[in-house]
Amino acid sequence: MAQTEFIKLSGIAAAPGISMAPAFLFTKEIETISDETIENVNEALENLRLAIEKSQKELSKVFSLAVDKLGEKRAAIFEAQLMILDDPILIETIRQRIIDEKKSPEFIVDAEMSKYQQLMSASSEAYMKERSLDIKDIKDRIIRNLKKRKWLSKILNNVIVVASSLTPADSVLFSKNDVKGYVTNFGGLTSHTAIVARALDIPAVVGVHDATSKISDGDYIIVDGFHGEIIVNPTKKQIKFYEEKIRKINDIDIEFAKLKDKPSVTKDGREIKLYANLDVTSELDLILQNCANGIGLLRTEQIFQGTEAFPDEDVQFEFYKEVAEKLYPGTVTIRTFDIGGDKVLPFDVKEPNPMLGWRGVRFLLDNNSLYKSQIRAILKASKHKNVKIMIPMISSIAEIRRSKEILEMCKHELRDEGFEFDESIPFGIMIEVPSAAVMAEDYAEEVDFISVGTNDLIQYLLAVDRGNEIVNDLYQEFHPALIRTLDFIIKAGKITDTEVSICGEMAADQYAVPLLVGLGFESLSMSPSAIPVTKKIITDLNYQQVKKLVYECLHYKTESEIKTALKDFFNENLKEEAERIK
Ligand code: PEP
Ligand code: MG
Known about the structure:
This protein is of the alpha/beta class. The chain has 3 domains: 7-28 and 156-234, Glucose Oxidase, domain 1 (3-Layer(bba) Sandwich), CATH 3.50.30.10; 41-146, PtsI, HPr-binding domain (Enzyme I, Chain A, domain 2, Orthogonal Bundle), CATH 1.10.274; 264-541, Phosphoenolpyruvate-binding domains (TIM Barrel). Helices cover 49% and strands 13% of the residues. The strands form 2 sheets. The chain has an 8-stranded mixed sheet. Helix 19 (512-519) links the parallel strand 15 (499-502) and strand 16. It is globular.
């Protein structure tokens, strides 16, 4: 082990857990490409053909691995990459340019594909930017194969991958090698690395800025995915400390897992229902294992991620039906497509400010047949009466009423067509926009349930982009304005007798649990891996006591006072749990 002095780096805690292992520095070398004239054009064309064939083979392998690890829907991104490799116009243009210009295939591939890549990366739209990375990925792959270099994603087992950023293909391939952790310079909570890491339960810290310049290949490192910290070349004392910590976490997790079949009830008898958020299909098993009450948020965008077109009604129906049947008698809250904003939009729309633009229900109401196809598919999957429907990004009562009209229209059609469905399917909305929070009481009267999406509510309430690591410090889930807003929404629910739950990432933050229970939330929806520890916390809480804690927190004026109060509460009342995240 290196004897150099240790350094500490910090970033965004993207997937919980702690691991220690040698770093594998994943740097993609920049290939030098010469623009010299070539002599043998036929040989160059044959090299191009072989390189494309090899790239196709590699990508097909990644695709089938991704199907296993992430499910078919998310794996479609690689299918789309394969389609680019199969594009006859692109390939013919490259071939023709080699013949005409007599330059090496590397040079022409680079020039031709970079044109598309630059066009897309100049787009202000997140989806197009992502696609530009896909093109770069394919371009680099072909060039590497032309140069007959080995593809670098082949790595050793049991290492922590450190990279500037990782493509979806890299993240999936690495997970095969029993990777112990991920550290990246770029990326936020919604980056591919973060999503794959959470789905596979691998600790990850992203948005570290200088990870690749401060960490060298082979450095022994500790990744703390609870706190977003990395220790490079730790001292013996630090290693001992973290070894002890990992051991304790393992013991605690084994204890927590024993609560699996027990209800989550506070010591003084208040039941808090726990639901799971479903993002990646493979998480279904984890959800079933952890015995959640069901799915509190099914993010349906996964159905079309990486594909060009919207799925039709039948494809959607099959998917919703499968999830609803697997979860039965647990309930499944299906959220209609939350397209736009930070999520993908499957066609080219340029918006100056996508987060404030054509997003969620706004997009759906303008695309009536798409909205209807989804609502019809959800209704058809509801015949066992365990499905709920939820609408994202509501910011006016007109959007609620218009959506309800479409729901009634769809019911009417399905009745005529002879389909069986839940006539009184619960209809709910997400509160993610401050105006909806202010109007919560009026909106609650229109719907069967409300679910608070804190990920967006925080960004819109505090005017801080949720995906921008530069302002990450200002994205505060314990900001007093947020706590008071949550209190206001809960009260609106009480007055109108409407169920209010929460499905933002905040519900998975252990420090937030006593606060949310004390505020009066009776159901929480979170990443499935957070359910066992949350259940443990709830069973150790006393509702009357956390109500007092909330009373104090509602009077604080700064985030740090609230955080301190929550930490103190943990240390005094939840010793075992505090041990896990200390
Ligand atoms: C939220 O905004 O809190 C939420 C759950 O929705 P998403 O993260 O999918 O935007
Ligand atoms: Mg949201």
